Amino acid sequence: MSEQTITTEEAATEHETGGISIGRVGLYATLVGLVGFYLIPIESGLVTSIKTPTALQETFPFLPPAGSGITVEKWQIAFDYLAPGMVNSMLFTIPSTILCALLGSMAAYGLTLVDWRGQIAVLALFIAGIFVPYQAVIVPLFQFWSQYMQLGTRLSFLWGLPLLEPHYATILELIITHTAYGIPIVTLLFRSQYKTMSEEMIEAARLDGASVWRVYRRIVLPLSIPMFAVVFIFQFTQIWNEFLFSLTIIGSTNDPAASATLILSGLGQSLEGTDYPLRMAGAFITALPTLLVYVLFADKFAEGVQT
Amino acid sequence: MAETQLDDVRKVFTEDDGNEIVAVNDVSIDIEDGEFLVLVGPSGCGKSTTLRMIAGLESITDGEIRLDDRVINDLPAKERNIAMVFQSYALYPHMTVRENMAFGLEESTDLSDDEIATRVEETAEMMGIDPLLDRKPEELSGGQQQRVALGRAIVREPAVFLMDEPLSNLDAKLRAQMRTELQQLQEQLETTTVYVTHDQTEAMTMGDRIAILNDGELQQVGTPLECYHEPANAFVADFIGEPAMNFFDVTRRNADGDGAVLVGETLEYAVSNDITTAIGDRNELVLGVRPEDIDIQHSDGNPRRADGHTVPATVTVVEPTGDENIVYLDLGEDGSETAIVTIDGMSRIEAGDSVVAHIPEDAIHVFDGKTNEALHNRRVESSEPRAPNI
C-alpha cells in the first residue's frame, strides 16, 4: 500500500519535471524578469544613497559603488534633517490611525448590527464621504483651522505645561483632519466584515443580558481584530505618506510641526542642483515606518484580508 | 420557571413598498409552568417569529405576551430572563466553552466570579461537557457545539427556554439521541420550554403539548395524541403523521335507509347515522384516513365486500422500511386517485398486485370541504391499558 503511493508520487514528479519543461522555463524567466523590473528602482535608490559625489558621476545608477566610493554620510544628514519631521509624523499618524479604526468600527457596528430608523441615510452620508476629493476640501480646511478654530490661540493656556509645545496645536489639527477623512472608508471596511457576522450570535448575546455597548466590547470588538490589522496598515500608510493636508495645514518646511513628507519634499534640493544620494537616503528613512507596520501586523493582516 | 401567556399576539411586517405582511395572526396560547410546548408548522408559518417575539428580538404589533402575569411586550430582550438556543448554536467563536457559558451570568447577574465558575462547572458536568471547558467552539464537533449551546442556556437558570430548531443541524442518529436527552433534561429542570421545529416527528415525540401554526394562524393546541387522532382541521391531520393522512374529496348522497354514502371519484363509502349527524347538511366534504388504518388484501377474485367500505386498488410502489411496508396504491379501476397504506413488514405484497383496500368506518375523519374544519374524527379507545401479551 505505502510502496504503491510512493511509486505513484514518483511518477507524478517525473512527469512534471520531464513533461512541460519549456513552458516552465518560460514562466520562470518571465517571473525573474518581473522581479528584476520591480526591484531595480529600489536597488538603484539604495546604491545611490551610499555613493560619494564622485562615485555618483562615475558609475551607472544601478551599479554599486567601488569600495572607496561608499559613504553613509548622506544617511546621517538625511536622518538629522528628517528626525523632527518623523517625530511629528508619528505624533499625528499613530493617534489618527487608532482613532480612525476605533471610531470606524463603532460606526460600522452601529450602522450594521444595531437596528434603528434612518440607518440608510446616515450610511449614505458615510459613503459620500469616501468620494470627497482632497482638492475640494483644501481651501475650506485651511480657512476652518486658521480662521475659525485657531487652536494655537485657544489652547494657549496649555503650552506652559511641561512636554507641551505650541506647534502641537498644528499636530492636533492634523490628527482631527486625518481621523475625519479616514472614518468613512474605515467604516465601510468594518461594515463589510460585520455584515457577515452571525446575527444569531449577536441576538444570543443580547438575550444573555448584554447591552448594545457590552455586545460591541465583548463580542464584536474581539472578533474584528484581524480587520483592525488591515485598517492599521492601510490607514497608517495613507496618513504617513499624505502630503496635501500637511502642506495645507502646516504650510512650511520650516514650521516646527513639519511632517516627514513635507521635509522630504525639499530635501537635497538646492540652487546647485539635486543631491540624489541625500534624496534617496531620505526616501528610505521615511519609508521605514510603513514597512515596520506591515511586518508587525502581517499575519493578522492576512487573516483580515481573507474575511 | 414561569407561566407564559400569548394573548392575541400579532406581528405585521411592513415591506419597503408599504405592503403589509401578517406573519403571526392573533395567536393565543397559554403555556403552563414547566410545560414543554412545541410550536410546529411548515416553513414561513410564523413559528420562529412567535418565538422571537417571546424572546424580545422582534417587536409585537398587537396583543400581549405575559410572563407570570406581567406584560413583557416592551421589556428589552436582556431583561426578560429568557434563554434561547439557536439553530446555528450562535456560540461566541473567540471564547472558550467556559467563557461562552459564563458570559450570560457575567452580563445578567451580580454573582461573584467564584459563584459563576462553580455554576458553569456544575452545569458542564451535568451536560457531560466538562472535558471541553477550555476548548474553543471551532475545536468541537456539531454535537458538542449543540451541547454547549444548551449548557449556555441552562447555566443561566432562566424563566423560559426558547429553542429554535436546535437539532436540525445534527445527523439523524444524534438527533434522535438528543431528542430523548433534551426531554429528560427538561423534565429534570422543570423549566417552561418553547420549542420550534418544522419536523412533526420532533413535535410528536418531545412535546407535552404541540401548537400547530400555518400561515401565521394557530390551527390547534393539544397533546400530540389529540392532534394526531382528533385533528381540528385537515391541515393538522395532514401535517401530523408520517406518511401523511390520505384525503379524498367526496360529496354526500343520502342512502335509502340510515346513514349516507360519501361519493368520490373512486370511492363510494357508506357512513352511519352518527357521522351523517356530524356532517349536517354540508355537501362538499373531505374523507381522511391514516395509512395505518387501511388494510389491504389480495383480491384473488374475492368479491367486493358488501359493507361499502372497500375499494379495489393496484399496488404501484412498495417501500420496505423493515418493520413496515409503505404501499402506494392506485384506487379504483382506472387508478385516478392514489392512497398510501402502511402494512406489516412481513406481509408479502408487490408492485402490480391487485388488492382490495378496506377502510374501517371507525377510523375515518370527515372534514368540511370548504373550511377544512374537522366534522368527525376517528374513535379512540386509547384510555384502556394494554393487556399484557402472553
TrEMBL record, chain A:
<dbReference type="Pfam" id="PF00528">
    <property type="entry name" value="BPD_transp_1"/>
</dbReference>
<keyword id="KW-0813">Transport</keyword>
<feature type="domain" description="ABC transmembrane type-1">
    <location>
        <begin position="86"/>
        <end position="297"/>
    </location>
</feature>
<feature type="transmembrane region" description="Helical">
    <location>
        <begin position="90"/>
        <end position="111"/>
    </location>
</feature>
<feature type="transmembrane region" description="Helical">
    <location>
        <begin position="276"/>
        <end position="297"/>
    </location>
</feature>
<comment type="similarity">
    <text>Belongs to the binding-protein-dependent transport system permease family.</text>
</comment>
<dbReference type="GO" id="GO:0005886">
    <property type="term" value="C:plasma membrane"/>
</dbReference>
<dbReference type="GO" id="GO:0055085">
    <property type="term" value="P:transmembrane transport"/>
</dbReference>
<feature type="transmembrane region" description="Helical">
    <location>
        <begin position="123"/>
        <end position="146"/>
    </location>
</feature>
<dbReference type="InterPro" id="IPR000515">
    <property type="entry name" value="MetI-like"/>
</dbReference>
<feature type="transmembrane region" description="Helical">
    <location>
        <begin position="25"/>
        <end position="42"/>
    </location>
</feature>
<keyword id="KW-0812">Transmembrane</keyword>
<dbReference type="InterPro" id="IPR035906">
    <property type="entry name" value="MetI-like_sf"/>
</dbReference>
<keyword id="KW-0472">Membrane</keyword>
<feature type="transmembrane region" description="Helical">
    <location>
        <begin position="219"/>
        <end position="237"/>
    </location>
</feature>
<feature type="transmembrane region" description="Helical">
    <location>
        <begin position="166"/>
        <end position="190"/>
    </location>
</feature>
<keyword id="KW-1133">Transmembrane helix</keyword>
<protein>
    <submittedName>
        <fullName>Sugar ABC transporter permease</fullName>
    </submittedName>
</protein>
UniProtKB/TrEMBL annotation, chain B:
<keyword id="KW-0813">Transport</keyword>
<dbReference type="InterPro" id="IPR008995">
    <property type="entry name" value="Mo/tungstate-bd_C_term_dom"/>
</dbReference>
<dbReference type="GO" id="GO:0005524">
    <property type="term" value="F:ATP binding"/>
</dbReference>
<dbReference type="GO" id="GO:0008643">
    <property type="term" value="P:carbohydrate transport"/>
</dbReference>
<dbReference type="Pfam" id="PF00005">
    <property type="entry name" value="ABC_tran"/>
</dbReference>
<dbReference type="GO" id="GO:0140359">
    <property type="term" value="F:ABC-type transporter activity"/>
</dbReference>
<dbReference type="InterPro" id="IPR003593">
    <property type="entry name" value="AAA+_ATPase"/>
</dbReference>
<dbReference type="InterPro" id="IPR017871">
    <property type="entry name" value="ABC_transporter-like_CS"/>
</dbReference>
<keyword id="KW-0067">ATP-binding</keyword>
<dbReference type="InterPro" id="IPR015855">
    <property type="entry name" value="ABC_transpr_MalK-like"/>
</dbReference>
<dbReference type="InterPro" id="IPR012340">
    <property type="entry name" value="NA-bd_OB-fold"/>
</dbReference>
<keyword id="KW-0547">Nucleotide-binding</keyword>
<comment type="similarity">
    <text>Belongs to the ABC transporter superfamily. Carbohydrate uptake transporter-1 (CUT1) (TC 3.A.1.1) family.</text>
</comment>
<dbReference type="InterPro" id="IPR027417">
    <property type="entry name" value="P-loop_NTPase"/>
</dbReference>
<feature type="domain" description="ABC transporter">
    <location>
        <begin position="4"/>
        <end position="240"/>
    </location>
</feature>
<dbReference type="InterPro" id="IPR047641">
    <property type="entry name" value="ABC_transpr_MalK/UgpC-like"/>
</dbReference>
<comment type="function">
    <text>Part of the ABC transporter complex XacGHIJK involved in the uptake of xylose and arabinose. Responsible for energy coupling to the transport system.</text>
</comment>
<protein>
    <recommendedName>
        <fullName>ABC-type D-xylose/L-arabinose transporter</fullName>
        <ecNumber>7.5.2.13</ecNumber>
    </recommendedName>
</protein>
<dbReference type="GO" id="GO:0055052">
    <property type="term" value="C:ATP-binding cassette (ABC) transporter complex, substrate-binding subunit-containing"/>
</dbReference>
<comment type="subunit">
    <text>The complex is composed of two ATP-binding proteins (XacJ and XacK), two transmembrane proteins (XacH and XacI) and a solute-binding protein (XacG).</text>
</comment>
<dbReference type="InterPro" id="IPR003439">
    <property type="entry name" value="ABC_transporter-like_ATP-bd"/>
</dbReference>
<dbReference type="GO" id="GO:0016887">
    <property type="term" value="F:ATP hydrolysis activity"/>
</dbReference>
